[in-house]
Write a structure and sequence with these properties.
alpha+beta, tt1808, chain A, 6-stranded mixed sheet, 3 helices, 23% helix, 29% strand, globular
Amino acid sequence: MSAQPDPYANPGHYSDVDPEKALKYAVQHIKGDRAQIIEGVIEPVSPSWDHENVGDSIRAQIAPRVRDLGCISGSGNLDLPGSANWYVPDLAVVPRDLAKGGEALLPNQTLLVVEVTSDSNAETDRVAKRKRYAEYGAPLYLLVDRQERSCTLFAEPGQLGYTHVEGPHPFGTPITLPEPFGLVLDTSEL
């Protein structure tokens, strides 16, 4: 007979486990893959090369200004505490000092978040992520919609969504990123 307790004999045995923390811990420890949680659903993050090309084009255009601002750009984890959401944006700009801790950041700690749609996740980027990024205070959200061949910049976040929207603009239309960026993105190569 085993001396170990039967976890099923006492259902309250795991009552101190926080389901949100457990889910977010699990998604960070999936072997060999990156994953995100969208409204409680775990999704693998595996962008194609043409998807990556869009992010690379934007990253190259904003890189000098990102450095001037003392920031970095990348696709690190964003936690949305109090929800079953853990995002891996296609691109985010964050202060360099915040990126040194190795922990996930919050959307309100970013200067810019960019999502590039894929056939499999376009509605997620258009609706769920737009809503949540606003709710969690991401100051700028650039949606690059490859299916619609357009870009939309969302600004001035609040609990009910973004209150300022520029677009959708067809690819090829210059997109002005406001301060602290103060630059114009060329979208003709997206």
